[in-house]
Amino acid sequence: MSERETPDQETPDAEVVELAGKVFGLARTGDAAALAAYVDAGVPADLSNENGDSLVMLAAYHGHADAVTALLDRGADADRANDRGQTPLAGAVFKGEDAVIRALLAGGANPEAGIPSAVDTARMFGKTELLELFATQVNEG
Predict the structure, then answer these.
(1) Domain boundaries defined on the chain
(2) Is the model's pTM score more than 0.85?
């Protein structure tokens, strides 16, 4: 332990950091099969980076519905917000990723979660069809 480290602040193992970087890359590129394999082997489904972006957030923001579904099927939280309060669903609305929006809703995402929420984001961009879809989702939930 270095002088500046406290017992509560251990330096992460270099191999763990490398593996995490690889898994975050898989989420960004949408490699659903590889993500599923890593999570099945023990990588936390809700692994988050230094900004609080989860694997689901990265896959959703980059438009990878299959990767989102694979992670949600393995227990990832569809509503896990990053450090700025943004949820994967709001990110998908912002990016206009309809397949991801549907995958997140199928996985239980709450359109009203986060700041701004997916509902707020849809309103900002005048996406009335999404507002109608979200209203249906919220009323069924």
Answers:
(1) 14-140
(2) yes
